[in-house]
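Minimal example, chain plus S-adenosylmethionine.
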Amino acid sequence: MTTLPQGHREFDDDIPSAPCSVDLVALEALAAELASLDYTVDGVGSLLGGPAYSALGRGQFAPALLEARRLLRHGHAEAVDRTGHADLTGARPVGNAGADRTGHADPVDARHAAGDTTGDLRAVPVLLWLLGEDVTEDDLRTAFPGIGLVGLERLRLIERIPQGPAPAGGTGADQESAGPAPASAGTTLASAGTDQVPSAWRAAVELRPYASDVGGNLWVASDLGSEQRPGRLRHDHVLGIGGASLTLAQAVMRAPVDRALDLGTGCGIQAFHLLAHARHVTLTDISARALAFARFNLLLNAPALGLAAHQPGERVSLRLGSLLEPVEGERFDLVVSNPPFVITPRTGDPAESYTYRDGGLAGDAIVETLVRELPGILTPGGAAQLLGNWEITEGTGWERRIRGFVPPGVDAWIIQREQLTPVQYAETWLRDAAENRDRDAYLRSYADYLADFASRDVEGIGFGSVWLRRPRTPSDLVRVTLEEITHEIEQPVGPHLAAAVGRADWLADHTEQAASGIGIAEEFLLVADDVTEERHQRPGAEHPGVILLRQGAGLRRTTLLSTELAGFVSACDGDLTAGQIAGALAMLLDRPDAAFTSELLVDVEQLIREGFLIPAV
Ligand SMILES: C[S@@+](CC[C@H](N)C(=O)[O-])C[C@H]1O[C@@H](n2cnc3c(N)ncnc32)[C@H](O)[C@@H]1O
């Protein structure tokens, strides 16, 4: 039994509709058995095979379901051939004959020992927790001989399906309906061709392997999605690792910090990454269920995350509450947030809102609140990174409204990655929560979305990332940069964003020095390694009509160069200072005026800011 510090507001430690994390021994046993079943990202990939696995990544369950069902029925003989393993156990550590290093029985070997060499038990957790399929009691018992059915049920990872005549097809039941539903998305494997469903179990949650730079293989529990459990999501649905979660995780600049905050933690995914470079991480959420999932995930993965399972409070603290309220009066070096930024019509019907995506405020007020208030909880030099949607009012540029949220005296870099019309936005979010199953309800919700946007003259909705930094001292120069980057960028982009911030700081230092006559003119510059030049000219033309610099990495920018700037860049090999190159060009082009040099150096600064040129150090 363990407790995590819970901040100021008391909240229930054990929520019946979320996994239970009070039994550390059971969690340890579960982790050992999942590892033993090779229930990892690579393990599942090699089990299902490339096509089925990549289809799963696209949200297409069918090939994975067919393959996992086949593996469980007909065993691993073919799987062994396909994955190239001489024997299933051969892929495991030497000496793993029937028991793993923790002393737990290996379920695959246990099945072999029992003389049953047909089914591939690695398919059991895949079918159950990834694909939402019902699993027989026998298969569960054999796959998890250590923790067993009782242990899995006590952790609230599985729930029994009532016995009785097999229902025809899925129910389409609302996930919020009380009590276990009569059938899940899948059918009970052993039920085919019989009238009676043998005792079967289904997942109570999703439990997904996650490979990360943090500590290797993790398992992350969240609520089942609508693919796994048809019907409307429950209101306090706890989101698994989604596209936005990964977008943010990949964008975070991961310098070592003392205290970090994950605001709106959900299943805890951002906090897991933060634990790799923050001494202490505070996780907040408005949903006690979300915190219960996060707590379960932290403790299940404690060794990989560098947490002492018996004393997790040394590194993490869980807080219940809205926005900044649970951390009032505290300061953080880094705040990350994938907040509930989805703009939702305020119809007054609580059934229309989902805590994972809707913060309960009108329009883009949740993003506005965070952008305005987060700088106030940062230490000097501390930064916040968040994702968000912002409204674009009719007749204005996309940057106007979001720019207005940034408080004075704060460094900001806002990148718009996508812009949708109100119609596209309504479609996206109605589809997301499986709200498009009932035609009338769908139409009503669609109309609500359009009316809501129209009431504020919204013609577009921007999506992107926001970086905010509190200056180290009040006299530091601050800069607000807004740009639209809609092409594909390199991932993870975080290191490139950090390098860009480093270059901007370097330029700011030189701008301050410029008053004393130093500036970048004294600096040696190099062309960044990923940069290439393209010249385009009409056939037969004497000179190129277009000269471009292109980045192969990071934000993958392209920029147009004047002939002078192209000449400057080609001389940036670290031998001459920027001032010397500019001077030589002025002579060559017969432009001895000071304006030529200073305008050229302003353009050079922009090339440094964008990473085409870098200081030679
Ligand atoms: C989009 S999910 C993000 C989950 C996770 N951090 C991730 O990156 O995938 C937003 C989370 O914010 C929580 N939330 C909603 N309203 C909130 C509020 N007013 N204050 C704090 N958290 C809130 C939701 O419960 C949900 O867990």
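Residues 239, 242, 245, 248, 264-266, 269-270, 284-287, 290, 322-323, 338-340, 355-357, 359 surround S-adenosylmethionine (CB under 6 Å). Residues 124 and 139 are 7 Å apart (CA to CA).
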